[in-house]
Amino acid sequence: MGRRIAFVGAGALGGYVGGHMTRAGHDVILIDPWPEHVAHMRRNGIELSGTTAGERHTVRVNALHLTDVQGLVKQKPIDIAFVAVKSYDTEWATLMIRPYLAPDGFVVSLQNCINEERIAQHVGWGRTVGCIASLIAVELYEPGRIKRTVPTGGERHTVFRVGEPHGRVTRRIEEVTELLRAVDSAKVTTNLWGERWSKLVVNSMRNGLSAATGLFGNQRDALEGPRWVSIRLGSEAVRVGQALGFQLERMLGMEPEVLARAGEGHQDALSEITDVLMEGAKKRADDQRPSMAQDIAKGRRTETDYINGYVAARGADIRVPAPTHARMNEAVKRVERGEVKPSPQVVAGW
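Structure (tokenized):
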């Protein structure tokens, strides 16, 4: 019999990936706390779309509400549990699915930020795997409807990178990688922590900035003021990652050292990174916005403490200042609290 797969969190990313795995014929359960979303998936399936007509699919899925999870005790155990919730929900999500794991079952963090340690606290490092989703840009815009606002990666860009915390190649991460190829391009990585921090650099440049300013991705990168803030955020995050000893990867066409130098005011590097950001904007839909900007639009809590706040905190631990991250973290919290409205004025003069 095939492996049994669960997605704890069937929002934008979990629903998109789990929907495509179901479409490929795998035994998948989608678990989510939003009643209307679960009801739509049960009634009509999950509707997936992208930037081309060929990416439009309606898939019949096995959807459970959180209150239904206890019924899994009567079913075949879960072999692979993808945790795809917000970072602040990681621990309860891991604890919820833990009793239903098979003896050799394990948990995969399919999330923004760095959550493997939180998962390992509850299931152990031996049952913890990491997966980075790079340049996927998906949005759950209505119950049961998820759209992707950037082109698929395919041979041009590897979207999923799966790794063990210890860095060795194992059969299980090869299996997860093969499962993810039903969704988009995927590879095994022996550099999970370097990949994680590299993705964090990109998220830290975009998520909080769009959340605080209300700008869509293309607007954020086209406007000189916000773009400069973005580059400085990237530069500081690179320097903290380097000081922590991570082997950083090339990030969407940006070399880590070039990005760091750009934010420090080196004109040759700044020109190169500006060109990369402007070129990247040509490949996104105009309505693309990062997940934290989606959260602000929906009145939800953001992951700012786990992105900009996390970079600032780790930098403070090792005495590598990241002041723009600390400032951005507080700006997003002010927007969350309703003290200010999202606007480019929030970062004016930075």
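The chain has two domains: 4-190, 195-347. The domain at 4-190 is CATH 3.40.50.720 (Rossmann fold).
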